[in-house]
Each structure stands twice: as C-alpha cells, then as structure tokens.
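Write out the 3D structure for:
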Amino acid sequence: MLVRPLIPGSVGYVDESIHDEPGLYLVAVVYAVPDLAPRVGRELAELIPTATRPHWHAEDGPTRLRLVRALATLPVRATVYVCRFECRGHKEASRRRALRWLALDVPQDVRRLVLDRRQEKQDESDRKVLRGMAGRPPRFTVEHASSAKESLLWLSDILVGAAAARVTGRTGEYVAAVDSILDGVNIES
C-alpha cells in the first residue's frame, strides 16, 4: 500500500461511528489542507443531489461507493482507530482511548485537529483528552465544528462509515476504494 504524502498545512478532521453490536467505537481522522473545502463541498454535494451534504448513514450503497471513490481522488491522508466496549455505558471510555491513540499518531507537521461537534459536555471531554496528549507547549490545537458548516468533516464521516462496514463484516469494498489514502484501520486488541 502506497499512501500519499502529507501536504504541509494539513489539519486533522475527526468523526466517529458507534456500533453497539459488536461493541465497537470507530474514530477516523482525515488530514487535509483547509483550502480543499470549496472543492469538497462542490464535488461531494454533486454526488448527492437530494441533500445539502453527504451523511454516510443516510446514503444508499451506490452513493456510498461514489463517495468513497471521490474521497480517494483527493489529496488527503487518513487513519481509522477502532476501540471496543463491553456495554453501552463504556462508549465514552472507548472514544477517549481512540482519541489518545489518534493523538499519539498525529504527524509532527499537523498543528490543528477539528472534531465534529457533539454535546458541549462531550466536546469538553474531547478537548481535555486531546489537550492532555498535545504536550507542553501543545503540538496541536483542538476545536469542534459542525459538519453542516465544515465540509472537510464530511471526509472523515465517509471514511469512518466505510471502515465500519468492513470491521462489522458487512463489506470491505468501501475501504478497498480508499486504500491509496489510508494509513491503516487500527483495531484495539
């Protein structure tokens, strides 16, 4: 697998996918330059003319395949982290483990992470985990944004959905389509 080099000025865009059965919490990061946002907004929105933005769970199989193929043409890099949880009450602990793992792998040139916004209390927990991993002085900053306003978060939504389809045994076709940008799907042992 030959993965594209990281473009200077790249930012990490992060989204998640939760699967109660079999108890998996997936976190994906896509590294992209912010200037890519207009292209992403335009090209991906064209693939789903009935909606303003793609959302993996709302799309059918053929649309998902078009989305992952479009993602694979972009100058980005990505990684997925998969952590396990035993019961519903442990989901956030799995997320924290995945975020710590991600933080350890953030390339030295990346100075900013943007996570898809959730509830404020959950966002604060994310910031606490990631800021604790960023070091002193911090290697990167952390912020949350709405995927309705930040089109580069669409990329991590697509990637994490594709990875979830593979690790839950539904299909590996989507992940295979993004092999050229994917550093790996790392599964907690």
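The chain has a mean pLDDT of 94.
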